[in-house]
Amino acid sequence: MEQTLVILKPSCVERCLIGEVISRIQNRGIIICGMKMMQLDEKILREHYSHLVDRPFFPELCASMMVSPVICLVLKGIDVINVFRSMAGATNGRNAAPGTIRGDFSMSGQANLVHASDSPESAKTEIERFFSPNEIFDYTPSYFPLLYANDDLVK
Ligand code: IDP
Ligand code: MG
Is this prediction's pTM over 0.85? Predict the structure, then answer.
């Protein structure tokens, strides 16, 4: 089953929205396999946002990600990478649809509450960047049969 890396950014932590976002994840039926608080530094951010290091806003983005600790999550579910990206909404909160995390709680292009992996390749790299194998618990909760029909599980 697919896994994705999600980061609850300082804009989520500082505004006390951790519980709100985790509720949405659990209410959707997404399984949390890893969860930890981390203080990010410039080294890990330069790797994580390597596609943005040459953009003019990178120094401010980097600083904004170090304002407070973040919460890193490994989430599991069928198609969870795309499911969570759609729950997060468009990058700029002002363009994000109501009902999405960013569309409900962000007015910013930068302070947009969550990071979410955007492909299976980036999910693998990002999970390995933020978690060691013994911090990921690939368990099956007892309520699992309530989440999916047999049809969903045949691939
Ligand atoms: P994503 O988070 O929706 O995948 P990316 O393009 O990968 O968006 O950008 C990573 C993060 O960089 C965004 O979530 C946002 O915090 C920040 N960012 C992206 N574009 C801008 C911008 O134009 N101005 C300021 N910050 C930006
Ligand atoms: Mg991205």
Answer: yes
